[in-house]
Each structure stands twice: as C-alpha cells, then as structure tokens.
Design goal:
This protein is mainly α and 105 residues long. Helices cover 65% and strands 0% of the residues.
Length: 105
Amino acid sequence: MYSRGYDGVPIDYVEAALWYKKAADQGVVEAQETLGDLYRLGVGIDKDVVQAYKWYQISISDNTELPDYKKNEITGTIGLLEKEMTNDQVAEAKKLANEWKPMAK
C-alpha cells in the first residue's frame, strides 16, 4: 500500500521497502523480486547491486510459482546487473543468495 498509495495511505517508499523486506524474508516471491527492484534502483532504500542481485536470484531459485516469462525477465535483469558489478560483488551476491533461508511466518 505504501508503494502505490492505496486506500488513503500516503506514498512512502521507505516504509514500503521495510514491508517488502519483511515479506521477502518470509519467502514471498513477489516481494523478493520487488525488493530486488528497490535495491537496484535505490528507491526507499540505499542502492545496493549486491542485495539486488541476491533478491532476484532468490526469487527465481527453485521457484515453481513464477511463470517462465517472469523467470526469464528476472534472469535478464540479473544479466544487466552483472555488467555493472565486479566479479567479487557477483560472488558475494551468489553466496548470500545460497545461504539465505526464509524466516518463520
């Protein structure tokens, strides 16, 4: 609601990022992808390509909820991110994604 200002709630990207993070941590795929977007663009949260990559990777890893076109879209975004990242940043992002476990709901 904070990212779009629904039902009289004022748009607040910082608050939206906090709620997307909570949902992403619990394994909500759409929130994981959106959190990747927020980190990639620096909207409501500091820009961080490592965190963006991590959340995109998590959102497509072993996920049968996403249709193929969406997985392809996210994979393309990861490819674009890799072009602006160092090898060390990519390695760190992959490590973080591999170590991630959802929090209890």
